[in-house]
Description:
Domain Cyclic nucleotide-binding: 29-114
Radius of gyration: 18 Å
Helix content: 40-55%
InterPro entries: cNMP-bd_dom (IPR000595), cNMP-bd_dom_sf (IPR018490), RmlC-like_jellyroll (IPR014710)
Protein name: cAMP-binding protein
Order of helices and strands: HHEEEEEEHEEHHHHHH
Pfam families: cNMP_binding
Amino acid sequence: xxxxxxxxxxxxxxxxxxxTFFASKLQKVELEKNTIILEIGKTEKYLSxxxxxxxxxxxxxxxxxxxxxxxxxxxxxxAYDSFLTQSPSEYQIETLTETSLWRISNNDLQEVYNSxxxxxxxxxxxxxxxxxxxxxxxxxLLNRSAEERYLxxxxxxxxxxxxxxxxxxASYIGITPQALSRIRKRIN
Length: 188
């Protein structure tokens, strides 16, 4: 639980009493590799902090999934649109490795926002960070070549290649696995 406290304190330090209140709402969850955290059509009930593991966000397809996000240790994961609106998710979330999460329910998070001094500041800053990540990816898909997106991905997140199957990386940058193989040959 120390890692989540450090993460939050870097955003906006919590008093010990606010932290104790927030921590009392957290639930630890241990998940195996390839566990579905949220199924398409289900409503997101939790905001989760990854203390260990790799998670992907994707739209399942018959031929090949459309992967649009990866999250790692010390990052938050949720189907944020479903979480905010409490409506069914249009995508799934699954673990790619054994994963440990600390999660808080939507109702408990609202209670933290209402009862702590800086809960709303932390929530706003996390939402802004999620928006910036999403915006950067969208702009990259519109403005950069597949090879540039591949290279950018590894300059931003060098641990991707060791932990994520290439078919998911190809989907994430918007190309086929065969096209990714050609790019990798050209680069090497």
